[in-house]
Amino acid sequence: MNRRDFLRRSAALGISTALAGSMLSNVASAADKPKRGGHLLIGLNGANAGDSLDPATFTASHLQVTGLQLYNTLVEVDSGLDVRAKPSAQPSLAEKWEAKPGAKEWIFKIRKDVTFHNGKPLTAADVVYSLNHHRKPDSKSGAKSLFAPVADIKANGTHEVVITLNSGNADLPYLLADYHLGIGPEGDDFTKGIGTGAFMLENYEPGVRTLTKRNPNHFRSDRGFVDSVETIAINDPTARLNALISGSVHLINRVDPKAVLSLSRNKGVQVFEILGPSHYTFPMRCDIAPFNNKDLRLAMKFAIDRQAIIDKVLVGHGKIGNDQPIGSTDLFYANIAQRPFDPEKAKFHFKNSGHNAPVVLSVSDGAFTGAVDAAQIYQASAKKAGIDLQIDRVPADGYWDNVWMKKPWCASYWDGRPTADLMLSVVYKSDASWNETFWKRADFDKLLETARAELNVSKRKKMYYDLQQMVHEDGGEVIPMFNNTIDAGSSKVKGFVALPTNLMSGYRAPEKVWLET
Amino acid sequence: MLRLIANRLGLGLITLFGVSVLIFIGTEVLPGDVATAILGQSATPEAVEAIRRSLHLHDPAIVRYGRWLWNLVQGDLGASLANGRPIAQQIGPRLANTFFLAGYAAVIAVPLSIAFGIIAAMRQNGYFDRITNTATLITISMPEFFVGYVLIILLSVKLGWFPSLSMVTYKMGFGQRLFVTAMPAITLVLVVMAYMMRMTRASVVAAMSSPYVEMAILKGLPQWRIVVQHALPNAWAPIINVVALNLAYLVVGVIVVEVVFVYPGVGQLMVDAVSKRDVPVVQACGLIFASTFVGLNMLADLFAILSNPRLRHPR
């Protein structure tokens, strides 16, 4: 690889040169021939003693990665071994699919060579049952809202599933790749972990660890190389680092940006870092005073020194945000001119707003790590614009219940969504359950629905540009930055390709990697 | 004696009942419930409602507490609200882990600190006394997680003697278990030794200054006999009490050590349960912790009575 290649690749990834080295070596290793065997140890956060193997209840890393060892989804969002490619919908349990014009009716062909861990062959009935698990009225699933626009799911013969929507959605295959939507056998309650995945459950201790062994009958020969996987719950970030450095585990997730430099100095350790769609936000409630005033919202958007926050809170491991939630890794990212830190403009809009009391921001590190620090930097930059930003520190415990979407202005974060449509639909549409800014615009909703049903990519691109422009200009979000996803592993781990979609190579690292002895 | 034990047991039960009421009120006062805690940021009103309905969270608090107590009296700890698993099955292995680690640390710490305390008392203001005093004061002044991290850096990262994770599994042999849990055990030993050692030293020193010891010295008895046969019997009561308190601490207060070494004990379970507002699990853990305190205090009192004839014949 020459210098030009190197620069082009790192530019395409949107990452700094210092990191590009580790990522590109990762591409080279992916070209090696996979080796079978070995016991893979993974240390992940986000485990709780109250966890269960039912995919409907998954919320955090430990179960997301455990769950996708056991279950497959109809579709996967992946970029294959090429880190330059933007991830797209790839076949998994569904070998192909097509949409009727208008994208209201979708037909998914199910593979015929798949069996569950208990030996039962996979049929369309299992798929219908598993999807309805999240859709039925009394479902407790975190994916329930995904199915709100679904009118009907039915089997057509033994290996074909027809999904009918209330209104067209060109992104349906992406939605079906959601980690909640693992397919289990019909009639199963999902807590036993019986799926079609590359690994079968040996032992599960909630909040402690999961032990799985390779599924010899897995339908994909290009997945599942290690003999067994032990997914250990290590919620403490320092304990995860120690475990990796001392060789107790092969892979860890969510490396603290502040630790990356010292970690990469260790021999035998590689850092997997990639910019994804996850971002931090300061949502202002557009429905109540004082932020129902567009000038005040603009004043606060101009009064934030984003780069200072990236440098201090993320130690540079992120990318500047532009007050709209679609990241540069998305197919429909709109490259709108970056809003700068401009005290003069902030002063102007603040004056125009007629607001003259202090502006209060409620924060806690429960919203995202470093939220309080970020608020303090914000406070200092707002002061330069003559705006008195006051910080209201609130407890992390119960934050999402008592502060978020209750107080006029707080801190929040989004892991991002696989598609631009989904991100805008779940947080920005007027009637979205998570419309954290209470921003309501009929023209936005209408355009969003039109864009969703459009199958022509270039027409869609134009529509999503306009949508992002609306949020950027008028919406209630201050989005300072997109944060990098940082995993790390031992140099024995080969085949790990960081994906912008999710941590641990789209949660599927256990079945993609192999161990060099 | 028997009446005394029965009396204490009765009081213990009342204490436990009080504790369970307090824990229940405490978890009720916390903002949010299991439904919003499970769903976190992804809580939609419909999903929250579905969970609340299926777990009967709409019932008044007193009804839910009564239902829990009624089941408990029948010996049923109930099931976790968060994942529906039986609590007894969830707590069992973790409780065994906690007792294993506490026992491991106690077996090293208790004899060692009592012996050190006695030697320090015999060599008052000598080198041994000063060194052990300073060393234990240092280890007790540092927070547990710091001691833990220092041990990890030295023994695990630099020297590679022990694994940094104390992952015990159900099929691990006894020797392997001792090896894997060595570092958390050493951390705990360092943390609890100071109290017991200094209390032993202080109470032996106090006994040594009494007239009957002076008499023994004048009689020309060897020093070890004076300490072991004359001073120690009168010094036992406070030592037993501080040992009991530290044993209780080893069972209930080691959450930080569990987190640092990723050791699956009851402390972590209780913290997880509180963060998920899983009331029955919090209750069960709370009761275990409270019974440990009540039980060990009762034992301490019994031993104190046994060691002191005056208490055995109350007037």
Brief description of this entry?
Chain A is α+β, with helices and mostly antiparallel strands. Helix content of chain A is 30%, strand content 21%.
List the helices and strands and how they pair.
The complex is a heterodimer of chains A (517) and B (315).
Chain A: H1 3-13, H2 17-30, E1 39-44, H3 61-70, E2 75-78, E3 88-91, E4 94-99, E5 105-110, H4 124-132, E6 150-155, E7 160-165, H5 172-175, E8 199-205, E9 209-214, E10 228-233, H6 237-245, E11 251-252, H7 260-264, E12 269-283, H8 294-302, H9 306-313, E13 318-320, H10 343-353, E14 359-363, H11 371-384, E15 389-393, H12 399-402, E16 412-414, H13 420-427, H14 442-453, H15 457-474, E17 477-490, E18 493-494, H16 503-506, H17 509-512, E19 514-515
Parallel strand pairs in A: 1-10, 1-11, 14-15
Antiparallel strand pairs in A: 2-3, 4-5, 5-7, 6-7, 8-9, 9-10, 11-17, 12-16, 12-17, 13-17, 18-19
Chain B: H1 2-29, H2 34-39, H3 45-54, H4 61-73, H5 87-122, H6 127-141, H7 144-158, H8 174-180, H9 182-208, H10 211-219, H11 223-252, H12 255-261, H13 266-275, H14 279-307, H15 309-312
Describe the structure.
- The complex is a heterodimer of chains A (517) and B (315).
- Chain A is α+β, with helices and mostly antiparallel strands and 517 residues long.
- Chain A has helices at 3-13, 17-30, 61-70, 124-132, 172-175, 237-245, 260-264, 294-302, 306-313, 343-353, 371-384, 399-402, 420-427, 442-453, 457-474, 503-506, 509-512, and strands at residues 39-44, 75-78, 88-91, 94-99, 105-110, 150-155, 160-165, 199-205, 209-214, 228-233, 251-252, 269-283, 318-320, 359-363, 389-393, 412-414, 477-490, 493-494, 514-515.
- In chain A, strands 1, 8, 9, 10, 11, 12, 13, 16 and 17 form a 9-stranded mixed sheet that branches. In chain A, strands 4-5-7-6 form a 4-stranded antiparallel sheet, with helices on one face.
- In chain A, β8 (199-205) and β9 (209-214) form a beta hairpin.
- The longest helix of chain A is centred in the last third of the chain and has 18 residues, at 457-474.
- Chain A is globular.
- The two termini of chain A are 27 Å apart.
- The model of chain A is unreliable at 1-30 (pLDDT under 50).
- The relative contact order of chain B is 0.14.
